[in-house]
TrEMBL record:
Substrate binds at residues 19-28, 110, 137-138, 213, 251, 360. The lineage of its organism: Bacteria, Pseudomonadati, Pseudomonadota, Gammaproteobacteria, Enterobacterales. Belongs to the succinylarginine dihydrolase family. It comes from the Bacteria. It catalyses: N(2)-succinyl-L-arginine + 2 H2O + 2 H(+) = N(2)-succinyl-L-ornithine + 2 NH4(+) + CO2. The active site is at E174, H249, C366 (nucleophile). The keyword GTP-binding does not apply. This is N-succinylarginine dihydrolase. Homodimer. Pathway: Amino-acid degradation; L-arginine degradation via AST pathway; L-glutamate and succinate from L-arginine: step 2/5. Catalyzes the hydrolysis of N(2)-succinylarginine into N(2)-succinylornithine, ammonia and CO(2). It is an enzyme of class 3 (hydrolase). Its EC number is 3.5.3.23. InterPro entries: AstB_sf, SuccinylArg_d-Hdrlase_AstB.
Length: 442
C-alpha cells in the first residue's frame, strides 16, 4: 500500500511561559521565570508548519489545551469563583498555578506513540496517548490529548486512539520522542524501535542525577496495544550517562527516517549490538553515528542538532530540519555542512528560528507528531486541521487577535488571561471543526 509521512505540529497555547518545571531538562531550569512571548512562539511554530506544507509535505495542526486548568486547581483544593481560585493558587502555590497553566502540550512528540496501519495486525493506525507520568504539569495533558486526537483522527475504522497507560512511575511513557520506525517504503511493514530510560522494576543501569522518564514496561505495553509483530519490534535502553547530561528524551540524541538512523555515538546502551540488531531486520540500514570528538553530548544538548526532522525528498535524498541554535554553533554547523557534502543520504539542511520553544527545551522534532498515512486514511481524518495558505492566514490572524506578546508567572493570576484563553479556544474549535472538545465548553 502506498503511504507517506504526515507531520502534525502542536500549536503553542496562550499561556506559554518559562516556569522551570522540568527537572532534567536543562533549558527549562535555566530559563525559569524569564518573560516569554506567546504570540511569537505560536508564529514561529506556524512558520515551520507552513514552510513544510509549501514543500509538499502533508502538515497538520494539533490545538493547544485549555489553560489555566481550572478543574485541576479545584481538585487541588482551591475554591470559590474562577477569579478566587486563580488568586489563591497564585498566593499560596505559584508553582502549581504554573503547572496548571503550562503550554507544554505544544510538544506533541510527547502526545502519543503512533504505529502505522502497515505494522498493526488489525490494519488500523494506532495511537497510545502518553501518560507523561514523570512531570506533574505534563501528566495532566493525557485526557485532553486523547480528546483532541479523537477529534482529528475521528474515523474508528481507520484510527484507534488508546487512553494513556496507568498513571504510575512503573509505566512512565513519553510518547513518540522515544520511538523510531525504520523501513523502505512508508507503506510497507516497518521495524519499530522503542527506547526506554529505565526498567520499571529498577533493574539494570539508571541515571544518577536526572530522572529517566520512559520505562521498558511502558514501551512493551504500547507495542502490545498496537498489535505489532514481535519479529519487527525492538526495545533498547538509552544511555543513562547522557540522561545525566540533559538528554531527557531520546529525540534529543537520535532521529530516524526509513533506512537512516542519525544519532550520537553515545546515544544507546551497547550501541554496536543495537545497530547490528537493526541491520539484521532493516535492509540497507544506514546508521550515521556522530563521534563525540566531532560533537560532544553537551553541544548536542545545547544546539539540538538531533532534535531535527529527517524528511524524505522526492529525489530519494533526505532533508534535515534544524533549529537556529545548530547554525549558531561553529563546530556543529561545520559538522552538518560536511555531512551534507559527504555524499550520504542527508543532502539538505533547513533551519528555523524556534527560540521560544527551544528556551523550554523543545526543538523542531519535539513540536511534531509523525503519522504515516495512506491516502484513504488521510481522507478519513478531520480535513480542517491540515495546513494550507488559507489555514495559515486564518491562524496567524487568530494569534494576532488573541495572544499576548509578553507573559510572566505573575500574569497567570490575571482572570482576564483565563477569559482570553477561553474566547480564543472557543473560536479555534470552530476554525478546526473540533466540536466542543474543551471542558469549559461542556
Ligand atoms: N520534547 C520537549 C519537551 C519539553 C518539555 N519542557 C517543559 O515542559 C518545560 C516547561 C517549563 O519549565 O515551563 C519537557 O521537559 O517535557
Amino acid at each position: 500500500m502506498q503511504a507517506f509521512e504526515a507531520n502534525f505540529d502542536g500549536l503553542v497555547g496562550l499561556t506559554h511561559h518559562y516556569a522551570g518545571l522540568s527537572f532534567g531538562n536543562e533549558a527549562s531550569t535555566r530559563n525559569q521565570l524569564q518573560p516569554s512571548n506567546p504570540r511569537l512562539a505560536a508564529k514561529q511554530g506556524l512558520l515551520k508548519m507552513k514552510a513544510l506544507a509549501d514543500m509538499g509535505y502533508v502538515q497538520g495542526v494539533i490545538p493547544p489545551h485549555e489553560r489555566p486548568n481550572l478543574p485541576l486547581l479545584r481538585q487541588l483544593g482551591f475554591g470559590g469563583s474562577d477569579e478566587q481560585v486563580l488568586a489563591q493558587a497564585a498566593k499560596h502555590a505559584p508553582q502549581l498555578l504554573s503547572a496548571a497553566s503550562s503550554a507544554s502540550a505544544m510538544w506533541v512528540a510527547n502526545a502519543a506513540t503512533v504505529s502505522p496501519s502497515a505494522d498493526s495486525a488489525d490494519g488500523r493506525v494506532h495511537f497510545t496517548v502518553a501518560n507523561l507520568n514523570n512531570k506533574f504539569h505534563r501528566a495532566i495533558e493525557a485526557p485532553e490529548t486523547a480528546d483532541l486526537l479523537r477529534a482529528i483522527f475521528r474515523h474508528p475504522q481507520h484510527f484507534c486512539v488508546h487512553d494513556a497507560l496507568p498513571q504510575v512511575a512503573q509505566f512512565g511513557d513519553e510518547g513518540a520522542a522515544n520511538h523510531n520506525r525504520f523501513g523502505s517504503d512508508y507503506g510497507d511493514a516497518g521495524v519499530q524501535l522503542f527506547i526506554y530510560g529505565r526498567d520499571g522494576q529498577q533493574q539494570g543501569a539508571t541515571p544518577a542525577r536526572y530522572p529517566a522518564r520512559q520505562t521498558r514496561e511502558a514501551s512493551e505495553a504500547v507495542a502490545r496495544l498496537h498489535q505489532l509483530d514481535a519479529q519487527r519490534t525492538l526495545f533498547a535502553q538509552q544511555n543513562p550517562a547522557v540522561i545525566d547530561q540533559g538528554v531527557f528524551h531520546n529525540d534529543v540524541i537520535a532521529v530516524s527516517n526509513q533506512q537512516v538512523l542519525f544519532c550520537h555515538q553515545d546515544a544507546f546502551v551497547n550501541q554496536p549490538q543495537l545497530l547490528s540488531d537493526i541491520a539484521a531486520r532493516v535492509s540497507s540500514f544506514q546508521p550515521i553515528e556522530v563521534p563525540r570528538d566531532k560533537v560532544s553530548v553537551t553541544d548536542a544538548v545545547n544546539t539540538y542538532l538531533f532534535n531535527s526532522q529527517l524528511l524524505q525528498r522526492a529525489d530519494g535524498g533526505m532533508l534535515l530540519v534544524l533549529p537556529e541554535e545548530s547554525r549558531q554553533h561553529t563546530g556543529v554547523w561545520r559538522y552538518l555542512t560536511e555531512l551534507v557534502e559527504s555524499g550520504g543520504p542527508i543532502r539538505e539542511l533547513k533551519v528555523f528560528d524556534l527560540r521560544e520553544s527551544m528556551f523550554n527545551g523543545g526543538g523542531p522534532a519535539c513540536l511534531r507528531l509523525r503519522v504515516v498515512l495512506t491516502e484513504t486514511e488521510r481522507q478519513a481524518l478531520n480535513p480542517a486541521v491540515l495546513m494550507n495558505n488559507r489555514l495559515f492566514a486564518t491562524l496567524n490572524d487568530w494569534v494576532d487577535r488573541h495572544y499576548r506578546d509578553r507573559l510572566t508567572q505573575a500574569d497567570l493570576a490575571d482572570p482576564q488571561l483565563l477569559r482570553e484563553g477561553r474566547t480564543a479556544l472557543d473560536e479555534l474549535t470552530k476554525l478546526l471543526d473540533l466540536g466542543s472538545v474543551y471542558a469549559f465548553q461542556r
